[in-house]
Specification:
The chain is an alpha/beta fold and about 250 residues long. The chain contains nine helices and eleven strands. It has a single domain, classed as Rossmann fold (3-Layer(aba) Sandwich), CATH 3.40.50.300. The structure holds adenosine-5'-triphosphate.
């Protein structure tokens, strides 16, 4: 079943066409990597898909009411702002706000505990979120999105600022969530991680989809040269395929 359908989505920002006729579907059980150079329109695509900015074309999510949308999709924005000096546990519990009861039922507690465990945040749960390191704050915000327990997760550069072990742990968790039937749209700059963990890659450049499909096919030489102006060395490892930009 599809969780997100974008049809001919176009966005104009400051009189400039940032996205041009982008069509995309995310289905249950899929971890989809959104890749592309800086300024390609990855964040814009996510914001438009969620109905946060004006666009033309259609988005199945943006067409829903705010409550239905918040129960369908959790969003991790690129900017990791924490506005108030709340505890880690309280911040994560905000993920339960879209659900009836607003966070006080037994299932809310279970969702919050599960998110804390999955992001290995037990030692931090009573700390003030604003006083954590940048990477620790990033993990707390991922946990808030997990606590929302939505079928779809839209995450804008979720592993930016995480150390290598935490990057791997985060993408392994995303893979596991996909295996459990959730759909994930995740923007990534590390193409090695993208090819290793994603079921599918969508390559965005100049506001259009250059390629959408099997990661190794999307990352073929002419596509990578066209989008990024670089070459990739493809490497087979015991843990699966990866790539090195050269
Ligand atoms: N609020 C805004 N107002 C006007 N233009 C914007 C705004 N946000 C982004 N843009 C422009 O839209 C284009 C796409 O930006 P976007 O942030 O979607 O790219 P991106 O692919 O996510 O980039 P990055 O990899 O650097 O995060 C860029 O040219 C950017 O300057």
């Amino acid at each position: 079943m599809s969780l997100l359908e974008l049809r001919e989505l176009s966005v104009i920002r400051r009189n400039r066409q940032v996205l041009n006729d982008v069509s995309l579907t995310i289905s249950e059980g899929e971890l989809v990597g959104l890749i592309g150079p800086n300024g390609a329109g990855k964040s814009t695509l996510m914001e438009a898909a969620l109905g946060m900015i004006p666009f033309s074309g259609s988005s199945s999510l943006a067409a829903m009411g705010t409550e239905g949308r918040a129960r369908k999709a959790a969003y991790l924005p690129q900017s990791r702002e924490i506005a108030w000096p709340v505890s880690v546990e309280d911040l994560i519990s905000l993920g339960r706000l879209p659900w009836p009861g607003g966070g006080y039922r037994a299932e809310d507690r279970d969702a919050i505990e599960s998110a804390i465990t999955r992001m290995e945040l037990q030692p931090f749960r009573h700390r003030t979120a604003l006083r954590l390191s940048g990477g620790e704050q990033a993990r707390v915000l991922i946990a808030r999105a997990l606590a929302q327990q939505t079928p779809l997760i839209v995450a804008d550069e979720p592993v930016a600022g995480l150390d290598p072990a935490q990057q791997l742990a985060c993408l392994r968790l995303f893979r596991q969530l996909a295996q459990e039937g959730r759909g994930l749209l995740v923007s990534l700059h590390d193409l090695g991680l993208a090819v290793r963990f994603c079921d599918r890659l969508v390559l965005l450049a100049g506001g259009t989809v250059l390629a959408d499909g099997d990661p190794r096919h999307v990352l073929r030489d002419e596509m990578v040269q066209n989008a990024f102006g670089i070459t990739l060395r493809h490497v087979e490892t015991p843990d699966g395929p990866t790539v090195l930009p050269v």
